[in-house]
Every structure is written in structure tokens, then in C-alpha cells.
Amino acid sequence: MIQRIQTVYLLIVAGLLITAMCMPIGYFIDTMGEHPFKALGLEINDAFQSTWGLFGILMLSTIVAVATIFLYKNRMLQIRMTIFNSLLLVGYYIAALAFYFALKNDANMFQVGWALCLPLISIILNILAVRAIGRDEVMVKAADRLR
Length: 147
Known about the structure:
The model has no long low-confidence stretch (mean pLDDT about 90). The strands form two sheets. The protein has a three-stranded antiparallel sheet, with no helix packed on it. Strands 3-4 form a two-stranded antiparallel sheet. The chain has helices at about 5-20, 50-70, 75-105, 120-145; strands spanning about 25-30, 35, 40-45, 45-50, 110. With about 150 residues, it is of the alpha+beta class.
């Protein structure tokens, strides 16, 4: 299980998503200073704006990535789960954009944080994992033909 390259890809995906949950997506900058926009929320002027939906999507995506590792005996389900994980991460970007427009006003600017690219890297690693799982499936079918 651990010797397969897709397991390494999926473990890296889980690590990147946990990092994305903890790091700020960006910063809202106004006259009062810099306010970090994290997956759990944004605190501006002692008022907390909850964005728990972003955290929930990242948490669900992390759980799916870890669970997919243990589905190595059912490769087609593993491919489906990895594609579902990528779709969840696309939904994360849509939700982040919706929260950005909901929280943005004329008085503040937004500066993007480096943690915003981590789900995109996870999507790329998911694609690489799907390709590796598909290659394994072809090799197993070829081995069955030889028997």
C-alpha cells in the first residue's frame, strides 16, 4: 500500500489540506490594520465573521484523501473518490470567492496569502494519483490475462 506512488500523492494532498486549514487564505487590509482571512473566519474590529464552510470543505476533503488511501483493493472506487475530492476542492474555490465578495467592501483591500494555492496543488496531485491508479488497473488486468 505505502509503496505505491498514488499513496504518496494522497498523503501529500492530506498534508497540504491540513496546512491550508491552519494558514490564512489572505488578508483584508483597512485603516485599522491587517486582518487574516482564515478558513474558520475573519475578525475585523472585534467582530468575528464566520466562514466555517471553507473549513468544512477542507476537512471533508482531507478525510476523503486519507480514506482513499485505504481503498487500494478497489481501484475503481479509489479513482472515483479521488475525482470527488478534486470536485470538492473546486467547490472550495467557489465558496472562497463567494466569501470574498460577501466580506469585501470599499473600505478594505484584499491581499492574497500563499496558502490559497495549496488546494490547487492538491488538485494537481489528485490528477497524478488518478493516472497512477489507472496505470495500476491496466497492469493488473494485463497480469490476469497472462495467467
